[in-house]
Write a structure and sequence with these properties.
By secondary structure, the chain is an alpha+beta fold. The protein contains 3 helices and 3 strands; from the N terminus they run ββαβαα.
Length: about 120
């Protein structure tokens, strides 16, 4: 999903904004265990680095729990389309859930996600 840079996501409903990035989601993905929705790339990176739910740090989380959230994607497309001053580009089909890596990711110490995550 292409979100034009000029779209003011500050007026978007909280359900359309990733709790990790605090930005309008482009590829929303939901945790099947918690029902929470995140930007796919952000939650996958978080899980690979921390192996925990970002909003409930006591709860383990795996990539297998992350699936596309088509309903939220439609809401985001509608939000972007309803800003008549912008013309969103056509959207690509939603990517399938990536296969988990065989080995856990190693945090190199440069935790970029923690730098943008207000919860970290």
């Amino acid at each position: 999903l292409h979100i034009p840079d000029a779209v003011d996501d500050g007026t978007a409903d909280d359900a359309l904004v990733c709790p990790i990035t605090q930005q309008l989601m482009k590829e929303p993905a939901i945790s099947t265990a918690t029902g929470r929705t995140y930007e796919r790339s952000s939650i996958v990176q978080w899980v690979r680095e921390h192996h925990r739910d970002p909003l409930d740090r006591d709860r383990p989380m795996t990539e297998n729990e992350i699936v596309p959230n088509l309903a939220v994607r439609q809401l985001i497309e509608s939000f972007v389309t309803n800003h008549p001053q912008y013309t969103p580009e056509p959207t690509a089909p939603m990517a399938s859930t990536p296969e988990p890596t065989a080995q856990p990711a190693v945090n190199s110490g440069g935790d970029e996600l923690a730098q943008v995550c207000p919860l970290c």
